[in-house]
Amino acid sequence: MSRRAVVIGAGLAGMLAAAALSTVADEVVVLDRDELPDGPEHRKGLPQGRHAHLLMAGGLAAMEDLVPGVSMRGHLLAAGAHEIPLGSGMVALTPEGWFRRWRHPGPHMLTCTRALLDWAIRVAVLANTGVEIRKGQALELTGTRERVTGLRVSTGAGEEELAADFVVDAAGRGSRAVKWLAGLGISDVREKTVDAGLVNATRLYRTPVGAARFPLTIVQANPYLGRPGRSGMMLPIEGDRWMVSLAGTRGGGEPPADPDAFLRYALDLPDPIVGRLVSGAEPLTDVHVSRSTSNHRRYLEKTRHWPERFVVLGDALATFNPAYGQGMSVAAMGAQVLARELREAGLTGAGLARRVQRTAARSVEGAWTMAVSQDVWFPGTRGGSPGLADRLVTAYTRRMIRTATGSYTAASAVWDVTSMTTGPTRLLRPSTVLATLNGPPLPPAVGAPLTKQEREILRDLDRTGT
Question: Could you tell me the pTM of the whole model?
Fold first, then answer.
C-alpha cells in the first residue's frame, strides 16, 4: 500500500522536512497557499524575508544531512551565497566592546537573501527527491487525539480531504496547530510570547568597486542601558550587493522608512561605521520595514497527550527575535531530528511523533534562552522581565563577552554557541569559565579592527566627514 506524507508550508522548514520524509514515504506532498516564484524572489508568505538572515554552521550541517545527493554548502555558494568566517571575517561591536579578528577563522556562516536561500533549497529538494508541491491551504487536521489521518484542504477546485500517513506542520508564524489540536481534544498547549517591539528596516546597495571583500559589519544593540536598543548590520549578499539592516526596539528605538532618516539612524548608532560605509554606496531599493519579530514559543512537547503521525517544526513551533540569527538553523535541526527518527522507526513507528517533538524542543530551548535572556532587558518588553536567574546568567555572560573581546579561548566559545555547533553548556566548560574569571589578556580595541586596506575603503566611501 502506498504511503503518503503531507507537509504544510514550502518554506525552508517545510522543504527540509519533506526531504526527510522522502526517504521513507512513497509520496510526499507539500502544500503552500502562495504561488511560488520560479526564481529567488520575495514572496508574501515570508513577512521577514526582506531582512538579514544568517545561516549558522550548525544549521548548514543539519541541511547537509537532509538533502540526498547534493552538498547544500556547495549548492548555496554556487547560487551566490557568501561564506563568512566568524573569527576573521566579521567586524562586530558588542555591548562590551569590539571583538578582535583572529588568524583562526572559526566556524563559518552563510549570508544571502532569504529569497535565494528558500529558492535554492526548494530546487535542491525537488531535483533530488520525489517531493511534489501543490497550491492549497490546510483547513484542519483529520483524525483523533490518538492519531492524525490527514487534512482537510482548500484548493482551486474547492475543499477536499487529503489522507496522509504522516503530517508535518511547517506553516511558519501563521500556523494554526494549536487550534487544530484543540479540535482533536488536545487543549493544554502552553504558549509564551516575549516581545521587545523590534522593528527592522532594510535597504540593498550595490557593492562599491573595490569593496567586495569588506568584512560583514555589525553594531549590536545594548540591552543593558535602560533605553531602547538600536543596531545595524551590513552583510554581503548575492548579485554584488550589500544588505543593510537596521533594527530598534519600541519606545523610540525604531528605525525609519525614509531614506535620509535611514542613513542618519545608521550614523547615530553607538559607532557610525555602517552609516559611513553606505553613505558612499549606491542604493538599489527603497527601505523595507517589518515588525514580525517577537519571540513566540509553543510548548508542544509538554502536552499530556500527543497524536501519532503529526509533527510541528520550524517557526510553527517557535519563532525568535531575528536579531540573533537562529530561526533557520533551529528549523533545519528540527528536520534533522525528524530524519533521524524516521530512519530508526519508519514512517508509522509507534511514539515517533512525540519523540521528534520532544527532541526538537532541545534546540528550541537553547535558542529561546539566548534570545529571551537579552530581550527581557529592553524597556517596554512585553511578556517577560529579568528575574534573579536572568540577572545571574547576564552577569556571567557579560563578563564572558568582555573577556572574549581580548581572549581567543573565550571568543572561540562564543563562536561555537553563536554558530549553533554546540549548546549553551559550552560556555560552562572549565577552560571557558577560567578564561572568563581571569578576564581579557589583551586590552580593549580602540576602534573597529580593520586592516589598512579596509580603513582606506571606509575612508573613500565616507561622505559624512566623520
Answer: 0.94
